[in-house]
Amino acid sequence: MIGGVIAPGKIEEYLKEEIKKHGTICLPLIDSENSTDAASIAKKVEQMGASAVLVGGSSAIDQLELAQVVSEIKNFVKIPVILFPGNVTGVSPKADAILFSSLLNSENPYFITEAQALGALAVKKYQIEPLPTAYIIIGEGTAAWFVGRARAIPFHKPGLAVMYSLAAQYMGMRFVYLEAGSGAAQNVPPEMVGAVRKHYEGTLIVGGGIRSPETAAAIAKAGADAMVIGTMIEKDGDWQTKFASMIKAMRSAR
Ligand code: 1GP
After folding, report:
1. Residue 229 beta carbon below 6 angstroms from any ligand 1 atom
2. Of the candidates 11, 96, 123, 209, which lies 20 to 30 Å from 80 by C-alpha distance?
3. What pLDDT does residue 159 have?
C-alpha cells in the first residue's frame, strides 16, 4: 500500500512492460477441462510470444483438475500463469495472479460481489496477485453469458460498453475485459473497442471469437492492450501457424 492506494503488484507491472514493448499482447486461454495437453500447449504459446497464460473458463468446476493443470503448466513455462475464474471454484494455489473479476453487467449480484467475497481470503492465503478486473459481456448465446446471467450489451451499442468501462475506471478497476464469450460466432467489434479506448485509461483486454490475423489486427488497431485466444488453441491440428500470424498481426497493428 502506498499512501492509502493499493499499488499494482509485480505481474501487473510485468504485463504493462510487455504492452509497452509489443503494443498488444496475447494471453492464450487454456480451459482446464477441455485441454488434453495443457502443459505442452502452454510451452508452444510461450515460444510463439504469448506474454502469460490464462487458465480457467466460465464452466470449469473441477478444482483438483484445475490445480493439477496449473502446476503442470508452472513446471513447463516461465511466463506467468493467470487464473481466469468463472466462479469461486476457479481460485487455485500455485498460480501467479488472478483476474479478480466482477461481472459488471450480470443480473445476479452473486457474480458482481458475492463470489468475490467468498474467494477473496483464498486469494490472499495462496498469495496470488489479484488483478482488479471489470468483466463485461457483449452479445448473447455463449456459456459466459448464460452462466453469468449477463444482461449482455448488444454488439451494435458501443456506448453502453463505454459507460460500463468508465464506471469500472472510477471504481478503481485497472483492467477491463470486453468478452464476447468463448467460441462466440461474432467477436467484439473493433468499433466498440475503439469507443471504449477513447475513454477507459486502464488495461483493455478483449476476447471471444477471435480466429483470424485480420480480426486480431483490427482489434489491436482499435486500442486493445491484450487479446485472449482460447478455442483456436484447444483444437487438434495445425493451429500454430495461424496463431503465430495472429501474434504478428496484433503486434504490428499499433
Ligand atoms: C473466452 O475470451 C475467451 O473467455 C476466448 O474466447 O475461445 O473464442 O477464443 P475464444
Report:
1. yes
2. 209
3. 98
- Establish whether residue 79 lines the binding site of ligand 1, counting it when its CB lies within 6 angstroms of any ligand atom: no
Classify residue 137: in a domain, yes or no: yes
Give the model's pLDDT for residue 236: 61
pLDDT along the chain (254 residues), means of 10: 76 98 97 83 96 86 90 96 95 97 98 98 97 98 96 98 98 98 97 98 98 97 98 82 95 90
Cβ of 228 closer than 6 Å to ligand 1, yes or no, is yes
Please name the residue that has the C-alpha cell 462466440: 184
**Quick check: CB of 179 below 6 Å from ligand 1?**
yes
Tell me whether residue 242 is in a domain. yes
The pTM of the full predicted model, rounded to 2 decimals, is: 0.96
Ligand 1, atom nearest to 58 Cα? 4
* Ligand 1 in reach of 194 Cβ (< 6 A): no
Any ligand 1 atom below 6 A from CB of 208? yes
DSSP letters of 29-84?
Answer: EE-TTT-SSHHHHHHHHHHTT-S-EEEEETT---HHHHHHHHHHHHHH-SS-EEEE
- What distance in angstroms lies between residue 2's CA and the mean position of ligand 1's atoms? 35
What are 186's three cell numbers? 461474432
**188, 180 Cβ separation under 8 angstroms:** yes
- What proportions of the chain, in percent to the nearest 5, are helix, strand and coil? 45, 20, 35
| All cell numbers assigned to 75 | 513446471
For residue 165, the enclosing domain spans: 23-253
CB 55 within 8 A of CB 62: no
The enclosing domain of 173 has a CATH number of 3.20.20.390
